[in-house]
Amino acid sequence: MKKSVTALCIVCAFSISALAQESGRVEFLNSGKVVPTTLPFSEAVNVNGMLFLSGQLGNVPGTLTLVQGGIREEARQTMENIKTVLEAHGYGMRNLVKCTVMLADMADWPAFNEVYKSYFNNRYPARSAFGASGLALGARVEVDCIAAARE
């Protein structure tokens, strides 16, 4: 499992690097609307109109505290955090083209899907999902996404 996650990260890094080399336009973005800007990562990186979001958790905006209430509430806050990051940088949910879902327990898949579906109008991004042995802050779900600017 760790090898496949590592391979996925390497492929993503090469893809971002290749896109950046085409025009040299890379912006590292932090709005501070979801997580503190003091963390050692950008909430998003814009490469030629492609917005690569860091993994989002169900944290209360501006804090490192997860929402209470179980998987449904955590999934809902995760999706709200994604929406907030997108909007902070001029994108919306309609711009999402790929999401990767990480669940601490694959038994939460049906509950996550129920919440996830409510954020789209039958036009879903491509998606991958896998179970993880642990997520930051003890989260039950983490989602990272890629959005594309519409012309």
Provide the structure class: alpha+beta
Gyration radius (Cα, Å) is: 15 Å
C-alpha termini separation: 38 Å
The amount of helix comes to 25-40%
Give the SSE order as H and E letters: HEEEHEHEE
CATH topology value: 60s Ribosomal Protein L30, Chain: A
The CATH architecture: 2-Layer Sandwich
Tell me the number of strands. 6
Name the average pLDDT. Answer: 89
Q: Give the domain tally.
A: 1
The largest sheet is: 6 strands, mixed
Describe the overall structure.
The protein is an alpha+beta fold. It has helices spanning 2-23, 71-88, 109-117; strands at residues 26-29, 44-47, 50-53, 96-103, 126-131, 141-148. The protein has a single domain, classed as 60s Ribosomal Protein L30, Chain: A, CATH 3.30.1330.40. 32% of the residues lie in helices and 23% in strands. Helix 2 crosses helix 3.
Short description:
By secondary structure, this protein is an alpha+beta fold. Helix content is 32%, strand content 23%. The chain has one domain (25-148): RutC-like (60s Ribosomal Protein L30, Chain: A).
Task: Give me the secondary-structure topology.
Blueprint: H1 2-23, E1 26-29, E2 44-47, E3 50-53, H2 71-88, E4 96-103, H3 109-117, E5 126-131, E6 141-148
Helix pairs in contact: 2-3
